[in-house]
Amino acid sequence: MSELTNSKDKSIAQAIGFMRANRPLRTEELCRDYLRQNPGCTEHLRLLGHALMKQKRLAEAEENLRFALSLSPDYPQLHEDLGSVLAMQSRFDDAIPELEHAIRLQPALPLARKKLGQALAAAGRGKEADEEIQSYIDSDPARKAIIEAAELLNNEQTEEAMQAFQAILKSNPEDVNAMRYLARAYRQASKNLQDAEALLRNATQLAPSFVAAWFDLASLLNLRDKKMESIAAYQKVVQLDPENAAGWGGLGSAYAVAMYPEKSAEAYAKSIQLKPDVPNVLMGQAHVLKTLGDQAAALLAYRAAIKIKPDFGEVYWSMANLKIFHFEDQELTAMLQQLEQDNLSESEEIHFRFALGKAFEDKKDYDQAWHFYHTGNQKQRAMVDHFPLEMEIRQQQLREVFSERFMRERPDVGHDAGDPILIVGLPRSGSTLIEQILASHSQVEGTSELPVLGKIAESIGQHRIDGVQYPLAARELRNRDWRAYGLQYIEETRRHRVTNKPFFTDKLPNNFPQIGLLNLILPNAKIINARRHPLDSCLGNYKQLFSRGQNFTYDMLDLAHYYQQYHTMMKHWHEVLPGKVLDVHYEDTVYDLEGQVRRILDYCGLPFEQSCIDFHQTDRAVKTASSEQVRQPIYKEALGTWRLYEKHLDLWHEQLDDIVGELPMITRNAGL
Q1: Which residues contact 434 (CB under 8 A, 6 or more apart)?
Q2: DSSP for 478-539?
Q3: Contact predicate 288/252, CB 8 Å
Q4: Distance of CA 513 to CAs 129, 454, 486, 517, Å?
Q5: 3-state DSSP: the chain helix, strand, coil percent, rounded to 5?
Q6: Mean pLDDT per 10-residue section of the chain, whose length is 672 residues
Q7: Of 53, 89, 195, 551, which has the most beta carbons under 10 Å away?
Q8: DSSP three-state, residue 183
């Protein structure tokens, strides 16, 4: 082999390697270096054209490919490439003859017929397009089998599709397209998700540049609550294909779920820059802008989404969920008109009803507001699962296991970290206000609603062969197990922290049943119980359409029952752990902010700081429904809101009046 041939082969191999690594600029540099000495090398000219196309420098790519064809007019792949670059510029009438020429020169070109079919379709030549696409399909039996199985999946014949893809993989175990589609079938059937993940991981190992498989893997990992792995997979998508708007949008969503709002906003902005008319991406961007405190920009994004999709009820509800926002008259009219549409989905109708409840409440038409809130809740309750008896039995078991004797026999068995400050209670009871007060302190980092404690609880006894689960399985834990779980909590919450402040908040209201567990695994953790008048708490929840979970809030009796269980559970913790939990009444905080701030800080062992009183000036991301309210100074208007709807609340009075009777006078009389 001559030195020149060896140099050429080496240069081409390197250039192809950089293209596969998604480094087209480096490919371009290598090709240009070689072409300076050998300007007539069509292989390098073709590779240069590919590198320019990858960089979206289409005019330069076209010029380069035409020059290469002037040197080698019978090079079929060059005609195919020129057809591709012309189609990328939407010049389909020019692209078609180039692709036809490529096929005449080499009928077996793998993708030329597919590209020709797509160009013919785009040019409005549908019959010819169908013929070319069918020729493309028929030319490869394996490809034909994949397409036929995919058609079954598209027609929701999921079981048949699974069998077809499994048969393909049996004959060709390394068919990455079959792996991807079988994973999709599993996901569509909502089963074998672990197998689906394994298939996609295998596909991306066999074909590291398979963008579609990386995208499906990222989406599946997000579904399986593997947040950081999902982020890594989406990052791979946009690394391989920087112009992939859906990939950037997925990355924005994954960052938001993992509670990295600044990074989420950047990814969403990139997605919208590439493709500005995707309503769900605009809504996702608006959500994260709201979290970051930029309400004006959030509203612009929400309204942009509605302009594209007028029946997007979830966006109207998201605007209502800004709380301090008031709808314009034309927006209220538009929502009422949407409810009259026959083709509105159940989900969209529910979102519109909750949004209309807020709109009429702002107009002080409380009967109309109640009508829309109540009917929205009735429809939502039919779509979710909540089993009050199961919850009651579970909480009774917790009280039996974490008894006074059980706690007394296990003093200081946990991890000694004192970082966490847990804020528990019912949603819509002032927990975000307490979090914002604490997060305004120089020694406290505000994180968010962390699911870590609940996951630890569920993991206790999870793999026991005798079937004994938590909380009963907690009786057999050894002292070192309690400490290990405490350390696990600290380790798993660390990724949600971005500062080195010595304390952090964990504000997940639903953690209240796990106070006994927390006390054993982290005896030095602080626990604050956010309390509010029961009817205000219940009403606040009944007016809230949660993005997920909190299924007890969509029925008046379910809500009253849940509040009763919460009240019983908190009385238990006060009895078995006297002095461990600090109750903070929302009404007390509104009437005596400084006194309650000092009380909270004293309990946490923190020195007083004026910034905690000026909490509304603290610049931080807040994800919960109260995000805009805690950016305002303290106000009394929300006290006793239940009185505005009193004639509709007889059931709650009947169920909760005994609890109301135990409250401090300032709480009972709030709003009078």
Answers
A1: 423, 507, 528, 530, 584, 589, 600
A2: -HHHHHHHHHHHHHHHHTT--S--SEEEE--GGGGGGHHHHHHH-TT-EEEEEE--HHHHHH
A3: yes
A4: 62, 9, 17, 9
A5: 65, 5, 30
A6: 68 90 90 92 93 93 93 92 93 92 84 85 83 66 76 85 88 88 89 92 92 95 91 95 94 91 95 95 94 89 95 93 86 95 92 96 96 97 95 96 96 94 94 93 91 94 88 94 97 89 95 97 97 96 92 97 97 97 95 95 96 77 45 72 96 96 90 78
A7: 53
A8: helix
Dihedral sign (CA 576, 578, 582, 586) = positive
3-141 CATH, one of 2.30.300.10, 1.25.40.10, 1.10.1200.10, 2.60.40.10: 1.25.40.10
Which amino acid appears at position 235 of this protein?
Q
The DSSP element (H or E) to which 236 belongs, if any, is helix 227-240
What 3-state DSSP class applies to 134? helix
471 prior amide bond cis, ω within 30: yes
Give SS3 for 583: strand
Give yes or no for a contact between 305 and 283, defined as CB atoms under 8 angstroms apart. yes
- Within 10 A of 613 (CB to CB), how many other CB atoms are there? 18
Q: What is the pairing mode between strands 444-448 and 503-506?
A: parallel
125, 110 in Cβ contact below 8 A?
A: no
Which of the four CATH numbers 3.30.160.250, 3.90.1150.10, 3.40.50.300, 3.20.20.80 does domain 394-668 have? 3.40.50.300
User: Residue 630 is which amino acid?
Assistant: V
pLDDT score for 121: 86
SS (H, E, C) 196-251: HHHHHHHHHHHCCCCHHHHHHHHHHHHHCCCHHHHHHHHHHHHHHCCCCHHHHHHH
Rounded to a whole number of angstroms, the CA Rg of the chain reads 31
- What single-letter DSSP state applies at residue 577? S
* Structural contact between residues 43 and 51, judged by C-beta atoms closer than 8 angstroms: no
Tell me the C-alpha distance between 249 and 269, whole Å: 8
Residue 420 DSSP one-character state: E
Domain with CATH 1.25.40.10 in the chain: 3-141
- The token pair that represents 497 in the structure block: 């922290």
Q: What is the pLDDT of residue 4?
A: 53
The CA distance from 243 to 219, in Å, is 18
